[in-house]
Amino acid sequence: MKIAMVHDYFTQMGGAEKVAEELYNMLPGADLFATVALKDKMPESIRDVPVTTSWMQNLPRMRDLYRLYFPLYPFAVSSLDLSQYDLVVSSSSGYVKGVQVAPDAIHVCYCHTPMRWVWNFDNYSSRESFAGGVKAVLPTLIRGLRIWDEAAARQPDHFVANSQTVAARIKRAYGRSAEVIVPPIDIHRFKVSLEQDDYYVVLARLVPYKRIDLAVSACTALGRKLVVIGSGPALEGLKKDAGPTIHFAGRASDAQVEEYVSRCRALIFPGEEDFGMAPLEVAAAGRPTIAYRAGGAMETVVEGVTGVFFNEQTTEEVVDAIERFERQEWAPLAIRLHAEGFSTEVFREKFAAFLRRVGAPID
């Protein structure tokens, strides 16, 4: 059986790229495709794998402008030739679910979420910064893209969602049902430490919708130490609002992340995520999470066992959640045990079993 694995684009490192990495590594002899692939933005284990890309790879300043090129991606996807493959697995929060495959091929789409900027445009655009001219034409472009996206969603034979939250969105947007297989966590990276320091951590790309500002403002108000791990366009604004107890660690290496996480008090997770791997990564180190009660965190954080929730995205709510967290005793080994149910091994078993059920066994 000839297999292709297709990812939207390798232009940033996030949870979707980690899933794409694992999908590629578990598919025997698969060829890798993407509309664009910046090698330094690919997961390390597949960085040297040959990637077939589209003509968009050669557009000027792709590294800086990949977001603004969004009207072109449907055309780039249509240029990818997958006609020789028996099984196509797409990893998509955007476009590659719309790839054309051979009539008798099986196409399984692992959907991280329906396009946020199409199906939740008002909320998305209010959180992102666009030049005035771009913002003026966006509604027209988005209407056209929504029509394309609805058609593209008819291409996969099967959808797999990363959470119940995303499965519900797929149903609302596309009228399609989805199997839920949560993303894999490399629990072996993390060790439960008996030593604990007095800081909280944030582990995220620094973009507005992640609401890292709430963690910064709450820890500043309480005088609590916070280590912000990650980089992104929101960094400078966060620094302006941060008090002396906030440390910006930047884009840390895996070893640095493991060290920070193993000794922290807890993760602060203030955004609404489709799934959100960070709470499970810190749980693998036996550390709890203080999370906004919405989205994927509802499926990965067990209240009172692996973390606490807050109900509104305000500084006051986060402050209250931190204070409630500090009044409770936590059991690191119980938290670690919870994370083990989301391991890479469990993911591989579930995804391989799903492929067998749909007539595409890989083992």
TrEMBL record:
Molecular function GO labels: glycosyltransferase activity
Keywords, in A-Z order: Plasmid, Transferase
Keyword Transferase: yes
Boundaries of every Glycosyl transferase family domain copy: 188-329
Gene3D superfamilies recorded: Glycogen Phosphorylase B (3.40.50.2000)
Domain of life of the organism encoding this protein: Bacteria
The keyword Membrane belongs to this UniProt entry's keyword annotation: no
PANTHER family: SULFOQUINOVOSYL TRANSFERASE SQD2 (PTHR45947:SF3)
Protein known as: Glycosyl transferase group 1
Organism in which the protein naturally occurs: Granulicella tundricola (strain ATCC BAA-1859 / DSM 23138 / MP5ACTX9)
